[in-house]
TrEMBL record:
Alphabetical list of InterPro entries matching this protein: AAA_lid_fung (IPR056599)
Record protein name field: AAA+ ATPase lid domain-containing protein
One Pfam family matching this protein: AAA_lid_13
Domain AAA+ ATPase lid as annotated: residue spans: 1-77
Length: 106
């Protein structure tokens, strides 16, 4: 597998991509999905390396945005707000939606 230079440039410079607030798990999943897309669309000859392109990354970013928008429409709350309401996380203040909502004393 290889990552083309224009793809690296896109990852480092695209404003929409840089604006995403993905956690490590989301980044890993997005990259794995982009690699899977590249493998499906890639060369079929033995020995040729699969190339991940900016289009593969863009497809995954678009898919992720649509999914998060769908969940927000469905639940009328962001992922952070839902997690705080279920007392799963206390990172709601990062999104600017409140203070210590869902905080648990330890």
């Amino acid at each position: 597998m290889r990552i083309a230079q224009p793809t690296k440039d896109y990852i480092r410079e695209d404003k929409d991509l840089l604006a995403l607030e993905w956690n490590a798990r989301e980044i890993r999943s997005a990259f794995q999905t982009a690699v899977a897309l590249a493998e499906v669309e890639g060369p079929k000859r033995q020995g040729d390396r699969t190339a991940v392109t900016a289009e593969h990354i863009k497809t995954v970013v678009t898919m992720s945005k649509h999914f998060k928008d769908y969940l927000k429409d469905l639940y009328q709350k962001s992922q952070d707000e839902r997690a705080a309401n279920m007392l799963l996380r206390n990172d709601i203040s990062r999104s600017g939606a409140g203070g210590d909502v869902g905080a648990q004393p330890y």
